[in-house]
Amino acid sequence: MWTVHEVSRRTGVTIRTLQYYDRIGLLRPAERTEAGYRLYDEEALERLQQILLFRELEFPLKEIHRILKSPVFDRDKALEQQIALLEMKKEHVERLIALARDIKEKKGERRMDFSAFDTKKMEEYAAQAKASWGQTAEYREYQEKAAGRTREESGALGEQLMGIFAEFGAVKTGDPGGETAQALVRKLQGFITAHYYACSPQALAGLGQMYAAGGEMTENIDRAGGAGAAAFAAEAIRIFCAAQ
Q1: What is the rounded CA–CA span in Å between residue 201 and residue 194?
Q2: 106, 131, 176, 202: most buried by Cβ count inside 10 Å?
Q3: Which domain holds residue 103?
């Protein structure tokens, strides 16, 4: 067992922060002495490591609390995804450093390359990871429905979903706020609700942002509906949700 002072010295986390984590229920001590002093065991320190990893990824404390107390939280899977996110973050910082050095070395030359600031891939992965950490009721419902399906049934649903995006692609030169595009948004929302989870306007808006964020999800939608289908669907969803 370690006292709060010993944990603070060992981890670099201030005593005040540890006391605050206890107050909000994020990190409880394993025991308390008769005098009321906090004592932490190895399990508590492992939880603190998880908290600190999420904090490095700039997760709010309330969100960390929801994730860690979720009944579907998978520690090993979370660590794998945290590693992937931290590697993306490292690559992002390295690109920024390289850009800054390049600008410094080429004084007087204009450099209009902004690709180093692009974080879309990282943001998309983070959104997917958050969902898989079970923080949302939607993901829990998705897991429950998916548990009873065969691989063939899941594949068939995926093809049907891509079929809807193919329909978006067929009208992508039109008005995303028009009747046809908005009808497709309602069709998409209904399909997700029927087969995956209750797709509220808030959940749908989040999906729309992910569709246009770049990366694998955007590529899959554009593969189904042609280049620009994901961006068109995302804009149609944005308009739809704004009117709700």
Answers
A1: 15
A2: 176
A3: 70-135
* 114-131 CB burial, b ≥16 within 10 A, e <16: eebeeeebbbbbbbebbb
Judge if 122 and 191 occupy the same domain.
Answer: no
At residue 71, the pLDDT reads 56
Residue 162 forms part of a structural domain: yes
Name the domain count of the chain: 3
Residues 127 and 94 in one domain: yes
What is the predicted pLDDT for the residue at 21? 92
CA distance 89 to 109: 28
Structure tokens at 176: 């995303």
What tens digit of pLDDT does each residue of 23-69 get?
Answer: 988 899 999 988 889 999 999 999 999 899 888 877 778 878 877 87
Nearest-5° Cα angle at 229, 226 to 233: 160
Q: How many other CB atoms sit within 10 Å of the CB of residue 146?
A: 14
**Distance between CA 136 and CA 124 in Å, rounded?**
16
> 3-class SS at 214?
coil
Longest Cα pair distance anywhere in the chain, in angstroms? 72
Say if CB 124 and CB 215 are below 8 A apart: yes
